[in-house]
Amino acid sequence: MGKENCSTVTEFVLVGLTDALELRVLLFLVLLLIYGVTVLGNLGMIALIRVSSRLHTPMYFFLSHLSFVDFCYSTIIVPKMLYNILNEGKAISFLGCMGQFYLFCTCVVTEIFLLAVMAYDRFLAICNPLLYMVSMSPKLRIMLVSGCYLYATVCSLTHLSLALEIPSYRSNVINHFFCDLPPLLSLACSDVTMNELMVFIMATSNEVMTIVIILTSYLFIVITILRMRSVEGRRKAFSTCASHLTAIIVFHGTVLFTYCRPGSGNSVDTDKVASVFYTVVIPMLNPLIYSLRNKDVKEALRKVMGSKIFSWRIFS
């Protein structure tokens, strides 16, 4: 595009998923339902872990932070998405767009490393159970979680600072439903090779680092489980890890598909579908995965619900 078509922007327009009225109404209802389940599931999981003494273990400490991150990045995206579906004006201010991207990126990178930390936690719990509570001390837990948040903040600030240096855009219409970096960079008039390179390098390196940690942890876990003589012990160990593995495969598969590919062959519609999956669906799935497949969570929920019903009967 010629320079005459380039200008600075004060706001962007988010195209969204569809312009068809009948589809927009259906989409709004479906997304509203999913978001409701996401909020209830994740905040409910955090509350359950806080009030149930049997869940005061390192595994559930990390799970509570995973639920918090899922709630945050779903809330960063979905309410604005719902508002845009119902309204013709789909504008978002320049600073609002950059803020949304920054917060979203921070949450996603945090989740990537939290899942790796949870794999390491499972490794310690299964491979060295006698020293587990000593090894995974409260101090170490806080350091690991803080490291996830801090590193994610640094990654997000790096991308944000490079994005803020873009002087002009050939259009302010973003063909997406939120301010993600790849569709934003496609509108830039200046050379954004460095931005695209940093996205690819940081996304790929983050994925490689965390996947190596996860695969190494689970390799030792599988070896340890296969050496167990007790069938019940094997079943319990596999059951404990199944929820975490499910969450890992779903989340990492989507992130790899979206950000760890060369940009030239990307389909916008395909990327939108993938983005809906990890911004809307996965935050809803995680609390369901960990509750439906986890005996401790189900027992804690049953106990809490039983005590609440009992208390209500006494005071009613």
How does this structure look, described?
- This protein has helices spanning 21-51, 58-86, 94-127, 132-135, 138-164, 181-185, 193-227, 231-259, 268-292, 295-315, and strands at residues 11-14, 91-93, 173-174.
- The chain has 316 residues and is mainly α.
- Helix 1 (21-51) packs parallel to helix 9, helix 2 (58-86) packs across helix 9 and helix 8 (231-259) packs antiparallel against helix 9 (268-292).
- It is globular, with a radius of gyration of 22 Å.
List keywords for this structure.
316 residues, mainly alpha, globular
Query: What would the average pLDDT be, to the nearest integer?
Result: 85
Give the strand order, joined by hyphens, for the main sheet: 2-1-3
% residues in beta strands? under 5%
Helix run count: 10
How many whole angstroms does the radius of gyration measure? 22 Å
Termini Cα gap = 71 Å
> How would you describe the shape?
globular
Classification by helices and strands = mainly alpha
**Got a strand count?**
3
Give start-end ranges of low-pLDDT stretches.
Answer: none
Largest sheet: 3 strands, mixed
Tell me the series of helices and strands, N- to C-terminal: EHHEHHHEHHHHH
Helix proportion range: over 70%
